[in-house]
Design a protein that fits this description.
Radius of gyration: 15 Å
Helix content: under 10%
Strand content: 35-45%
Order of helices and strands: EHEEEEEEEEEEEE
Low-confidence stretches: none
Number of strands: 13
Structural class: mainly beta
Largest sheet: 7 strands, antiparallel
Distance between the termini: 10 Å
Mean pLDDT: 96
Length: 191
């Protein structure tokens, strides 16, 4: 993740300058087959030391079929077209935070150590012809985490897709379940 002086405005518009210089995580694979996902998902990540920011650009040729029912926090967002973030902040390969956001900007969040955890999270989604975008900001303090240069966390980025051909895809190949922290990739904070 690139360390920046000031984070983006969380409005679902990915034209903010901070996203232009951030490297994109791509190459999502379909779960459980490990084949290239049928549609592209691109994620950029930056931090200002207080918040961790994510920008998801989701290509969607079946834009008119997007499924979005969860409207209240902690409803079953994963049953909608949604994105998911898994963060193993202490790199123990066992415990993690999970943040989900659908096309309406509805948030669902979980902590494997605390069943009632609600993180300090902001999210906004924006739809366009052939795509939908999401911006997410997570307050590091709400995860009891710091993001110092050189720090390494376990991470996975996932997409629940119901429009067109249903498909779950993942940045790190985790097998049959997104919930496999031993197979998460790594999030490295730039020095």
């Amino acid at each position: 993740a690139k360390i920046v002086r000031r984070g983006p405005i969380i409005d679902g518009d990915l034209s903010d300058a901070v996203w232009q210089d951030a490297e994109a995580a791509t190459g999502f694979v379909s779960i459980p087959r490990a084949e290239k996902a049928s549609v592209e998902t691109e994620v950029r990540i930056v931090t200002d030391g207080k918040w961790l920011y994510f920008a998801f650009h989701n290509v969607e040729p079946h834009y008119g079929e997007l499924k979005a029912y969860a409207m209240n926090r902690d409803e079953a967002v994963w049953q909608d077209d949604a994105v998911e973030i898994f963060l193993d902040t202490n790199l123990d390969r066992t415990t993690y935070y999970q943040i989900l956001v659908n096309t309406l900007g509805t948030i669902q969040d979980n902590d494997t150590r605390d069943a009632v955890w609600n993180g300090d999270i902001k999210a906004a989604a924006r739809k366009g012809k052939g795509y939908w975008d999401v911006e997410i900001a997570i307050n590091l303090a709400s995860m009891k985490a710091k993001a110092a240069p050189g720090d390494v966390w376990g991470m996975n980025l996932c997409r629940d897709r119901w429009a067109g051909r249903a498909e779950n895809s993942s940045w790190a190949f985790v097998g049959h379940s997104f919930h496999t922290p031993s197979k998460f990739g790594k999030l490295v904070f730039e020095k």
